[in-house]
Amino acid sequence: MTGQVVASIMSVPTVGITPAMRASEALSLAYEHHIHHMPVVERGILVGVVCTCDLESVPPDVCVSATLHGPPIVTQPQASSEEALGLMNAHGVGSLMVVQDQRILGIVTRKDLERAGVPMHDDPRGYCSCCGEYEHLREHATGTLCIECFDRSRASEVVDQGGGD
Q1: Which of 2, 22, 44, 49 has the lowest CB atom count within 10 Å?
Q2: What is the domain count for the chain?
Q3: Do the Cβ atoms of 51 and 72 come closer than 8 Å?
């Protein structure tokens, strides 16, 4: 079903972190809450967004500020789901912070939009050829894969050592 407003499909509450937080601490929070994107807030002001794949790519003691994406791309709660997808596509992001009066109300992700029935086929970044994921894509010999399928494929690859029959 399309035409829904962002407020009806966004995820709440958000788990905010600070720029000074260590990557390992932020990852622990993300894993604990089963989330992938987190707003970065400093002195009550939204300064950016960080995702787990960025945090996983740095040493554990690195500050979140080194990996955050900012300024954050935001939307209003009354925006349509199609408008949200258009913003994500235009800016090449996988999530939008939902704000009103400079207050974070929630977060809307591509997965939220997909669950709401928004057609995702027009995503210019493509999708994982294995599971259909639209975020955190990597090129692989078998096609475009999300990071999870990419890691699984690397772990299961069998290297021919020769000497066979």
Answers
A1: 44
A2: 2
A3: no
Is residue 165 included in any domain, yes or no? Answer: no
87 three-state secondary structure? helix
Within this chain, do residues 111 and 138 fall inside the same structural domain, yes or no?
Answer: no
Q: 100: closest CA among 74, 131, 133?
A: 74
d(CA 61, CA 40): 17
pTM assigned to the model: 0.71
Based on the fold, state whether residues 20 and 95 are members of the same structural domain: yes
For the ranges 42-51, 55-64, 121-130, the lowest mean pLDDT is seen at 121-130
Question: What beta strand segments (E) does 2-160 contain?
Answer: 37-42, 45-51, 74-75, 95-100, 103-109, 137-140, 143-146
pLDDT of residue 8: 94
The CATH number covering residue 111 comes to 3.10.580.10
Q: Would you place residue 61 in the very low, low, confident or very high pLDDT band (cuts 50, 70, 90)?
A: very high
